[in-house]
Amino acid sequence: MARAPVAAVCVLVCLGAWCALVSVVEGAARRLICWQAIVKCQAEAECNYAYGQYMHACEPVLSGRRTKCPSHCIASLVQLNLTRGGPALEECSCIDDEVCHKTKRAIEPCMPRTSSLGCTEARRQCDRDPQCRDYMSNYLLHCGKLFSGAGCTSACRQVIADMRRLPKAQLLDTCVCDGTERTICEYIKLKMKSLCFGEPTVADYNYDGSGSDDEDDDDEYEDRISKCPIQASVHTPCLRTKLAPC
């Protein structure tokens, strides 16, 4: 009789392992090869346009001339990920294409480091704190123009100043953008620095490399990028930034 529970456990473990294997295989099957993802994107008008913007904005990084990612490159990544075919460019597989692998490595500086508290966890901690949660609601209410890059109102600046005095909310200011939220998170942090406080938008960014003239490029490119619509919700899932076209 004692063998029956053991056998049942073995069956459950084996079944779980099989389901996990099937999930991995199905996930791999759904991943496009990068050249396929590019062709699919180019067949869609919005994705094709956003892809062109991305290639132009991120060219200094993709070509290896710079290791710091300009803010307009990040903005173009946001726009590309908002299109239907954009996310597939991030998830695609290079297989044995060395040029594709090189491109993936080149775009890596556009990814923030995660040595400190991630913004996903910082937001969760804020959400569990009633006062911080109220401040976050006020932030979403008064900083709508900031999200689109249109400007920063005095009410928005006041909310941010109030949040910086609250320990739990301070984590949102110092956290490192990560996970599925990192692209728009970085975009908003850049706009908050430049529009609300007039701070440098690239020099303070947590990237390697020199690229001290990126801000000039940002000014030149600013009028050519579309603004990023962001749904005002504390729990809004945002988009990922690591794209690797071949």
UniProtKB/TrEMBL annotation:
Residues covered by the GDNF/GAS1 domain: 34-110, 119-196
GO BP term, example: regulation of cell cycle
Entries under InterPro entries matching the protein: GAS1 (IPR039596), GDNF/GAS1 (IPR016017)
Secretion signal, residue range per the UniProt entry: 1-27
Coiled coil: none
Subcellular location: Cell membrane
Keyword annotations: Cell membrane, Glycoprotein, Membrane, Signal
A single Gene Ontology CC term: plasma membrane
Protein name: Growth arrest-specific 1a
Organism name: Astyanax mexicanus (Blind cave fish)
Lineage: Eukaryota, Metazoa, Chordata, Craniata, Vertebrata
